[in-house]
Write a structure and sequence with these properties.
alpha/beta, 8-stranded parallel beta sheet, 3-stranded antiparallel beta sheet, 7 helices, globular, binds 2-phosphoglycolic acid
């Protein structure tokens, strides 16, 4: 089985820097690359570092294209908790990316099946994802692919696990306001990416990270499928690596 490479970060800023190195390499090799992006707290240091590099003239996003992993159903792009809003606020408006080249699923569309199909068509038309950024949920989800009896395929509408709604409640006024459905790229869509960067920080995630990387490949731990991907880099800080014995686990270290 191909070796997953683990890059050990000193702290959150370092996790951002190491992750940005991975993206920068892809962007420099292919200026019109397609990046798969993620939202949540985990990628924020990455986005800050990309903005810093852009401001210093070290990165050019003028031809870069992006697709995001997921979006809540029922939130419009100008809702502060929508993922379109998150991407604009935390990355896109600070760099020279053309917003026409950025894609987040439309959770407000009356025909979500069409949205899902068109999302896959868009990814194909843009040549497939060169690098997919992922966080990992406390329950092992990637994107909004929640634990299930089978691995999901392509972009689809999904019901959010109650634990996911609870975890994301901190961004909303009340639990009732947290949407119960989302559009998400499927496990199949994610696994098609040529390279995957999984970022994981904080002690809270250490147990699920160990399960995902060292446990059996199991749809109840969706991220475990990454063990079958040929080109995965994990950036993790010390607390997140607490449950993994790097010396003896057989991972390629960085
Ligand atoms: P977080 O979310 O980065 O806010 O912890 C990760 C996820 O749920 O995928």
């Amino acid at each position: 089985m191909p070796k997953i490479k683990i890059l050990r970060a000193q702290d959150l800023v370092d996790a951002g820097r190491l992750s940005a190195d991975v993206l920068a390499e892809v962007i420099q090799a292919k200026p019109d690359c397609l990046l798969g992006l993620a939202t949540g707290s985990t990628p924020l240091p990455l986005y800050r570092d990309l903005i810093r590099r852009y401001a210093q003239g070290a990165l050019d996003f003028s031809k870069v294209r992006t697709v995001n992993l997921d979006e809540y159903v029922g939130l419009s792009g100008d809702h502060p908790q929508s993922y379109r809003y998150f991407m604009n606020e935390n990355l896109f408006q600070h760099i020279n990316i053309d917003l026409q080249n950025t894609c987040v699923p439309d959770g407000m569309n009356a025909d979500l099946d069409v949205v899902c199909k068109e999302y896959e068509t868009r990814i194909d038309a843009w040549g497939g994802i060169d690098l997919q950024v992922l966080g990992i949920g406390l329950n092992g989800h990637i994107g909004f692919n929640e634990p299930a009896t089978i691995f999901s395929g392509r972009t689809h509408v999904t019901n959010l696990a109650e634990s996911t709604r609870q975890a994301n409640r901190r961004f909303f006024e009340s639990l009732a306001e947290v949407p119960s459905q989302a559009i998400t790229m499927g496990i199949g869509s994610i696994m098609q990416a040529r390279k995957i960067l999984l970022i994981c920080t904080g002690e809270k995630k250490s147990e699920i990270l160990a399960k995902a990387l060292l446990g059996p490949v199991d749809p109840l731990v969706p991220a475990s499928i990454l063990q079958f991907h040929p080109n995965v880099v994990v950036v993790a800080d010390e607390p997140a690596l607490m449950s993994i014995d790097l010396e003896h686990s057989g991972f390629a270290a960085g």
